[in-house]
Amino acid sequence: MSARFLGTDDPRQLRVLDALRTKPQPREAIDTIAGVSNGPDVVMDLRTRGLDIPCERVTVIDRDGKPRRPGIYSLTQEDRRLVHAWLATRNDKEHSPC
To answer: How far apart are CA 33 and CA 22, in angstroms?
Structure first.
């Protein structure tokens, strides 16, 4: 993945990043957080901007006793570093007396 994340102004992507900075999120939560029905598309857009955002497939048993393998999205340590650096520059610009 690119070593350069230049950020985003997209409110959906910002909500997803904020949630992922807190903890890993299942796909269904990403849908709700982003306010869309296709959360993986929002994640894909963030990946094209330079983040890795891996998706770990976990095995769970659904309410009908059937196994399923939902995805859990998270930020890597490098993703966290890139997002933190971008947020620092973004905050500096917002508080700059221009």
So the answer is: 12
Is residue 98 scored above 80 in pLDDT? no
Q: Extract the tokens encoding 84.
A: 């933190």
- Indicate the DSSP class of residue 26: E
Amino acid at 90: R
Token code pair at residue 47: 């990946």
Per CATH, the architecture of 11-90 is what?
A: Orthogonal Bundle (1.10)
Query: How do residues 22-80 score in pLDDT, each as one tens digit?
Result: 999 999 999 999 999 999 999 999 999 999 999 999 999 999 999 999 999 999 999 99
Read off the tokens for 91.
Answer: 């905050």
Distance from the Cα of residue 59 to its chain's centroid: 21
Q: Apex CA 53: angle with CA 94 and CA 74, to 5°?
A: 90
pTM: 0.86
Domain boundaries, the chain: 11-90
